[in-house]
């Protein structure tokens, strides 16, 4: 089930699950060896996805990753390139664009490329350009409303963002609220410095403070905020990492936790209590909270058979 390159980690994870059960009691959701193997496979799959993003730090990035008119456009790689150039706020902004729309399994980065690049007929909406005239951005969206409605023309959101609206007024509100959040304290780096001055430089505390500060960013909710902050952490745009799986407000990961600890996706248990148990499990697995959040979500969809999820 796991590729040979991860064979040692596969056994290590199985052993860690057994050690957890020896100390805390059995995990009903993985009493079946097949379900246990499937969970481990999903953990390894999640580790690979994170390793891929982090591997970009050691690679040369083509400048066309920043060009929404190019088939090579990639807002995440572009964000990393901007960071290397010292354009911190532009890097955060482009990571936001990439996270909000996401990469669709079939359409790729089509939707963010079109919006970011004015559908090929106007300015590229960098943070500086947007901040100078958000009304022009909104007028562009209105003019392209019919195109946005048609997924064949405009592309689609990623799986995590599939319930977001492509109505111009909604996209406009998302962009305005994120821009206001990013720049209300003088830019993203200034916000992080303020958090460090108040709480210290512990990565998990900084993540939590940022997580809570984003509650007014429209359309981002629990999943959007978690995905955005974990992404900028993986890209190295901020020294942060989640210290929790943040289950309150979650759907798939919460169902996965219920299945794992109680053998029933619909078991009545509080999200905060279950979150603490998942966080405690990571002290044995040591894979990180994002990996557990992601793998539990994917595992509960198909616990008896490994399915690769992306897009």
In short:
The protein has 311 residues and is mostly helical.
3D structure, described in words:
61% of the residues lie in helices and 0% in strands. With 311 residues, it is mainly α. Helix 14 (252-262) crosses helix 16. The chain starts with 6 loop residues before the first helix and ends in a 10-residue tail after the last helix. Residues 1-6 have low confidence and may be disordered.
Task: Show the helix and strand layout.
Layout: H1 7-24, H2 33-55, H3 75-84, H4 88-101, H5 110-116, H6 127-132, H7 134-143, H8 145-149, H9 151-154, H10 168-183, H11 188-199, H12 203-213, H13 221-234, H14 252-262, H15 271-285, H16 289-301
List keywords for this structure.
single chain, 61% helix, mainly alpha
Order of helices and strands: HHHHHHHHHHHHHHHH
Mean pLDDT: 95
Largest sheet: none
**Level of helix content?**
55-70%
Q: How many helices in DSSP terms?
A: 16
Number of strands: 0
First-to-last CA distance: 21 Å
- The rough form would be described as globular
**Rg value:** 20 Å
| Percentage beta strand | under 5%
Uncertain spans: 1-6
How would you classify the helix and strand content by structural class? mainly alpha
């Amino acid at each position: 089930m796991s590729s040979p390159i991860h064979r040692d980690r596969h056994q290590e994870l199985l052993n860690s699950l057994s050690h957890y059960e020896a100390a805390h009691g059995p995990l009903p959701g993985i009493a079946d060896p097949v379900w246990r193997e499937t969970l481990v496979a999903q953990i390894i799959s999640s580790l690979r996805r994170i390793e891929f993003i982090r591997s970009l730090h050691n690679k040369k990035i083509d400048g066309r990753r920043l060009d929404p008119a190019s088939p090579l456009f990639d807002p995440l790689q572009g964000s990393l390139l901007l960071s290397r150039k010292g354009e911190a706020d532009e890097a955060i902004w482009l990571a936001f664009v990439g996270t909000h729309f996401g990469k669709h399994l079939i359409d790729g980065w089509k939707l963010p490329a079109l919006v970011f690049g004015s559908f090929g007929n106007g300015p590229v909406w960098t943070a500086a350009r947007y901040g100078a005239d958000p009304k022009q951005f909104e007028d562009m969206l209105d003019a392209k409303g019919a195109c946005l409605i048609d997924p064949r023309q405009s592309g689609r959101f990623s799986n995590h963002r599939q319930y977001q609206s492509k109505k111009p007024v909604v996209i406009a509100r998302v962009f305005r609220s994120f821009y206001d959040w990013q720049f209300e304290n003088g830019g993203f780096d200034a916000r992080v410095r303020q958090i460090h001055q108040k709480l210290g430089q512990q990565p998990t505390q900084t993540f939590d403070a940022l997580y809570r500060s984003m509650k007014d960013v429209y359309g981002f909710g629990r999943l959007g905020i978690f995905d955005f902050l974990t992404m900028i952490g993986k890209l190295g745009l901020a020294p942060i990492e989640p210290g929790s799986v943040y289950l309150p407000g979650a759907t798939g990961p919460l169902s996965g936790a219920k299945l794992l600890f109680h053998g029933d996706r619909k078991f009545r248990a509080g999200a905060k209590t279950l979150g603490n148990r998942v966080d405690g499990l990571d002290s044995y697995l040591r894979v990180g909270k994002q990996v557990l959040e992601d793998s539990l979500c994917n595992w509960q969809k198909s616990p008896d058979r490994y399915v690769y999820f992306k897009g």
